[in-house]
Amino acid sequence: MSKTAPDDDGRETLSETFTDALGDSLVRAMERNSSNPAKVQEAFRNINAMNHAKLYELLGPRSHDSGVDAWLKRPDLVSREHGRLFWDLDLVHQDMETERLGRHLPRATDAPRLFLSYSWGHDDETIFWIEEFAGWLFNRGYDIVFDRDPRHKAKGFTSNDLLWLLAGCSQMIALIDDGYQERIRDPKRTSPLCQEFALAPHFFRQFRQPRLLGLWIKGERLLPPFTPQWVVDYRDEDAYRARRDAAFPIRQYKVVGVAQDGSVREVGPMERRSVRDTVHSMLTEQGAEGVAVRDVTNALKPT
After folding, report:
1. Which of 99, 98, 33, 25 is nearest to 62 (CA)?
2. What percent of the chain has pLDDT over 90?
3. Is 293 buried (19+), middle (13-18) or exposed (0-12) by CB count in 10 A?
4. What's this model's pTM, rounded to 2 decimal places?
5. d(CA 87, CA 92)
6. Which of 24, 90, 155, 217 has its CA 20 to 30 A from that of 41?
7. pLDDT per residue over 257-287, tens digit each?
8. Distance between CA 32 and CA 39 in Å, rounded?
9. In this structure, are 99 and 214 located in the same domain?
10. pLDDT at 201
11. Is residue 2, in this structure, part of any structural domain at all?
12. Structural domains in the chain (count)
């Protein structure tokens, strides 16, 4: 995920490293909210409900160093040079404007949230495969945690910060190449990638999420702990595009509004790009006292 620091050389154990990483963000949040420590304690106590907006409210803005900033921006710059835009910019701007105005949408019930785990490297083919896949998921209405997400890059989240979002994800998707396997299989590695891979099972035991799914995107062979039991072979381009459509259907939502008299109105199904305006209309034009959003994708599947 967000690799804002190079791989360590085993200066600490892995458990010590991710404990320090989580503690770093907690200390920053306490310093920023020193007049209200209970707010911070409550937020981190309910870590499985953490999202980008809550995390940013707790931590505030931060700048990446120049090397990390250049790395995070590189895929977008090169894709623009070649006329390839992976992210739906209308939807990106819609989300950013909604957040700027403080109109945070209710989190959709039954909606998956996907944490994208990958190894930083210098292979352009892999870099752009991952960027295209992340943008494709977002464009189809998925809630994702991805360090190069254009909605959040300017916030300055570090790899330590993004670990706090892992517990709130329904699934961690490991995008596996040789570099990924090498890092995970080396017991001396304590990089951010190793931290999130080790931390996910701890959260799963506590919260029953995130589930782990591996997508094998490049390489000659899988080595333990990577096995076909939980890793899907996406190396062939045609097979990848056929399988991904079935595995990650376009998300469909319903917006449910409750009026003052207790009557309920449902609108949908709709794609995510229509959710914001529907919620706003229910609250401002139709007088709803409360609004909820439900992901109904699975209910719409043919039986």
Report:
1. 25
2. 65
3. buried
4. 0.91
5. 7
6. 155
7. 998 888 999 999 999 999 999 999 998 888 8
8. 11
9. yes
10. 94
11. no
12. 2
